[in-house]
Every structure is written in structure tokens, then in C-alpha cells.
Amino acid sequence: EVSLPGGKADEGDKDDGDTATREAKEEIGLDPSLVNIITVLEPFLSKHLLRVVPVIGVLNDRKAFKPTPNPAEVDAVFDAPLEMFIKDENRSAEEREWMGEKYLLHFFDYEIENKRYLIWGLTAGILIRAASVVYQRPPAFLEQSPKFKVPGLVDK
């Protein structure tokens, strides 16, 4: 499974940015001082009905970040070009049904350092939305079924 760093808010977290940077430090060793938070996206709903709030940040000094994965949570750390998530390359989609609604599930194939990764589901959906915001253009493919309605959210 490929996923983004993240997790539940702790009592000491001031906001979603605090939660995101704390979790990134715990999971991949990312020093919060290296991150400039740009924006917070609209929440997504996980298949388990949990509210997921994507936080977009930029590394102030990419060379200063030396990933140190938490072996209890992470097998590998890699980066992928964000723009690939709005291009219609190395991508496929399937129509699925969830809670009585038909929706599109996206899959992106990515290879780096002779390792192949399949980025799909909620992670792919978040990266598609993040890329659309950052590049200020919609994806070159249908992001979601026009008739899909998101069920109600559960607090995080």
C-alpha cells in the first residue's frame, strides 16, 4: 500500500497543519521547520467514513530532508512528480460502487530506482486534487463520476 504521511489529530495540535507536520515527523522523519504549509484542501472521506484533511506544504530546503522511515509504519519513502496526477499517462480507472453510489477509483503506475509502485484509491484522489490546486488546472481525465455524491463526514 502506498499512502501519504498522516493520522489523527492529537490534543496538542493547533490545527490541521500541526497534525500533518507532526505525523510526517513521526512517520518519515520530516522536520516541521523544513515545511512551508501552502493550503489545506477540502476533506475527503475514507472508505471507513473517516474525515481526511489533506495539507499541502512545500519543502524549504529539499536537500536538507533526509528521510528516516519509522519501521513500525513505513517500508519505503519515495517522491513522485505531482504533475503526473493530472496527466492521463500511466493511469487507469475503475468504476466501483460504495454505499450505493458509483464512483471512479484511479490507479497510477510509478517506477523509481527500479521499484514499481501502484498509487491508488484515497491516496491517488488526494494527489489528483493537490495537483489540480497547485497547477491550477483540472486533470486531463474525468476525476469523478458526475453523479457521485459523498456521504456525510465523520469528525476526525
From TrEMBL:
The keyword Metal-binding applies. PROSITE patterns: NUDIX (PS51462). Its cofactor is Mn(2+); Mg(2+). GO terms for molecular function: coenzyme A diphosphatase activity; guanosine-3',5'-bis(diphosphate) 3'-diphosphatase activity; metal ion binding. GO terms for biological process: acyl-CoA metabolic process; coenzyme A biosynthetic process; coenzyme A catabolic process. One of its GO terms (cellular component) is cytoplasm. Residues 1-25 are annotated as: Disordered. This is Nudix hydrolase domain-containing protein. Keywords: Hydrolase, Magnesium, Manganese, Metal-binding. Residues 1-123 form the Nudix hydrolase domain. It comes from Gossypium harknessii. It comes from the Eukaryota.
